[in-house]
Amino acid sequence: PGKIPNSTIPALRRLSLGLVYLVGYTVLSPHITEDYLLTEDYENHPFWFRCMYMLLWGKFVLNKYVTCWLVTEGVCILTGLGFNGFDERGKAQWDACANMKVWLFETTPRFTGTIASFNINTNAWVARYFFKRL
């Protein structure tokens, strides 16, 4: 008790995941652009295609922010700021600065899952200091 465990491996995991998102964004950025949404070619496609393209574009643009959050979380873990105590099995928890549950965000079929997995600390702060006071 009182000693913070080694944070290198958990920090490198978050950094690596952030780099995967960064590489994906960098590779796809020339091909999925918002400029295409204003072209006549886009306008001439069927409605279902336009909806799917806009869905993919929005998801793709969000990857920039996911990259920033994951890299920042890795830095917080590495410095020890991300340490959040131990769970009931004695395993260190590194989620004090977590802003995203990536697996839940990418796989949830429900809107409530998206809210629960995205912008976690901000949502908790708003719930604690704003909504509970209303």
Automatic annotation (TrEMBL):
Molecular function, one GO term: lysophospholipid acyltransferase activity
Localisation per UniProt entry: Endoplasmic reticulum membrane
Pathway: Phospholipid metabolism; Lipid metabolism; phospholipid metabolism
Gene Ontology cellular component terms for the protein in this record: endoplasmic reticulum membrane
Membrane-topology annotation of the record: Multi-pass membrane protein
Family statement drawn from the similarity comment of this UniProt entry: Belongs to the membrane-bound acyltransferase family.
Protein name according to UniProt: Lysophospholipid acyltransferase 5
Organism ancestry: Eukaryota, Metazoa, Chordata, Craniata, Vertebrata
